[in-house]
Specification:
The chain is mainly α. Helix content is 88%, strand content 0%. It has one domain: Metal-sensitive repressor, helix protomer (Methane Monooxygenase Hydroxylase, Chain G, domain 1, Up-down Bundle), CATH 1.20.58. GO terms for molecular function: DNA binding; metal ion binding.
Length: 85
């Protein structure tokens, strides 16, 4: 994984951690369910985004060893990702 991609994923994960801490505080403060659920939905979306980044951008490295095949694998993964949106 490239250094810039790794840094981006770490940044996203730290943001998710901050959101989780925010939800914890909201629950401690007995905030309304709608507000808490909205934040949980945002967290879920962020976690899914991190997963898709890993799958879409890095799966070819794990699946194939021949660099010429990686582009085809990446195209296929992109099609699958678009279908699942």
């Amino acid at each position: 994984m490239e250094d810039t991609a790794r840094k981006d994923l770490i940044k996203r994960l730290k943001t998710i951690r901050g959101h989780i801490q925010g939800v914890e505080k909201m629950i401690e403060e007995n905030k309304e369910c709608d507000a808490v659920m909205q934040q949980i939905t945002a967290i879920k979306s962020s976690v899914e985004k991190v997963g898709w980044i890993l799958i879409k951008d890095h799966a070819a490295e794990c699946i194939v060893k021949n660099p010429s095949d990686r582009e085809e694998v990446n195209r296929t993964i992109q099609k699958i990702a678009q279908f699942l949106k």
